[in-house]
Amino acid sequence: MRLDADRFGVHVREGNEEVDVEMQVPPDLADELGVDAEPDELVRESVAFLLEREPVTAIPGLITPDAISRSYEDYYDEIYDVAR
């Protein structure tokens, strides 16, 4: 759900665990990645990326693409691959 121009709220459920996550997406992220994707698609794919690597309860309440890429070097490559 879009909260404002560059912030999205996501309710994530995995098994019996649930968290609410807020993700900030810079307006120019798709252009920087060279993909034709809407911000909400980048949010979905980013959360899916995190869920493949850590339990839902380990996802911080506020995430940004830069923060994800600091933890996972392959983040931008993966997002590029699924969003193009």
Give your account of this protein's structure.
With 84 residues, the chain is an alpha+beta fold. It has one domain (2-83). The protein is built from 4 helices and 4 strands, in the order βββααβαα. The protein has helices at residues 29-33, 39-51, 65-71, 75-83, and strands at 2-4, 7-14, 17-24, 62-63. The chain has a 4-stranded mixed β-sheet. The longest helix has 13 residues, at 39-51.
From the structure above, extract its key features:
single chain; 84 residues; alpha+beta; four-stranded mixed β-sheet; 4 helices
Mean pLDDT: 93
Along the chain, the helix and strand elements come as EEEHHEHH
Please give the count of helices: 4
Strand percentage, roughly?
A: 25-35%
Alpha-beta content class:
alpha+beta
Strand order of the largest sheet: 1-2-3-4
Distance between the termini: 22 Å
Compute the CA-based radius of gyration.
12 Å
- Report the principal-axis shape: globular
Q: What is the multimeric organization of the chains shown? A: single chain
Strand count:
4
Q: Compute the number of structural domains.
A: 1
Largest sheet: 4 strands, mixed
Low-pLDDT segments: none
- Residue share in helix: 40-55%
Produce the secondary structure layout.
Layout: E1 2-4, E2 7-14, E3 17-24, H1 29-33, H2 39-51, E4 62-63, H3 65-71, H4 75-83
Parallel strand pairs: 3-4
Antiparallel strand pairs: 1-2, 2-3
Helix pairs in contact: 2-4
Short description:
With 84 residues, this protein is an alpha+beta fold.
